[in-house]
Amino acid sequence: MSAHDSNSFDPTPEDRFSFGLWTVGNPGRDPFGPSVRPTMDPNHIVRQLAAIGAWGVNLHDNDLIPFDASASERDRIVKEFKATVADTGMTVPMCTTNLFSHPIFKDGAFTANDPKVRAFALQKTMTAIDLGAELGAKIYVFWGGREGSEADACRDPRAAWQRMREAMDFLCGYVKDRDYGMKFALEAKPNEPRGDIYLPTTGHMLHFISTLEHEDMVGVNPEVAHEVMAGLSFAHNVAQALACDKLFHIDLNGQKIGRYDQDLRFGSEDQKGAFLLVRLLEGTLGGKPYDGPRHFDAHAYRTEDEAGVWEFAKGCMRTYKILAQRAAAFDADAEVKQLIAEQEDRELDPLLSGGYTVQKAAALKGLDVDVDAVASRGLGYERLDQLLVEYLLGVRS
Ligand code: GLT
Ligand code: MN
Ligand code: MN
Question: Is there an atom of ligand 1 within 6 Å of 22 CB?
């Protein structure tokens, strides 16, 4: 390697990379065919993740404890899992509830029309939050995969929104009452498995959060695939969440636009989008870096055996680190800095920031702008973008 030794991209726990049990544990089932890989024991997953340099392991309640487990079975499983996590030096930064697999959730969980379903969803979530607290998780994710509809005449979408708010307010109250010190991270998705899912994008979630009783303890968990499915720029969504201090967690993966939720290896698609995302998270362009877990919500191709799964996991982490190094080099490049600086005329800042005053309004109205000169100026973005591509392709360091 010219600029960098290839080994320096190997992950370490300091990188704070995490995987869900359901990600590396995904057996390759899809709507057209069954599993292609055996189900892996959660303890085995934790040991393997530790061996390849991951830092954290996340889980849904039922990734670890079967839906119908007895109390004694549950305790045995949790005891063994906690011991494995401790032995390997791993951590459980995030937990979540499976509110989508069991048939009772076929019409949603918190937004279902049947009040018994909504009550059961709260009960299951409180129990799962207790499990998360026992495992030390400080972030609790809510992904409402079944919270949506196909036959839209079945409910007023405003009722769904209201039910979701009531559920969040209630569960925030529960966490506060128990003093668990957890924060909630809401994950949006536009569709799949429902025809339309309520609160379909991170932007919708950010507004929804502003209507909650305990809005301070609720943020977002944006996922690359989900925003790309909605045709949006993931980096722009993440930037808005960062700007309002609401990026509590992140689901990194790869996705082609216009497809089903692919959950591909991070950076395996849209490398430019991944570069811009890592640049933002690492703060190489300036601004405060993201300091939460770097979580991969992705799974290996259905073509793979277990060895391929670990190649997949290592690939996610290596690509993140490679992109971080590429982004740092790009932002340190004198020509890049110059091209960006040329657009940053600070002279008018006092007039353009800090809100309205009568004086500023008068000054702006009296300002002599040479519109033809400004309009005819080339901005150099072709050169800037080409430099980005050359860093990305590794020919400039
Ligand atoms: C499920 C979904 C993910 C969510 C997980 C958390 S489960 O795999 O596709 O995007 O993050 O519930
Ligand atoms: Mn996700
Ligand atoms: Mn996904």
Answer: yes
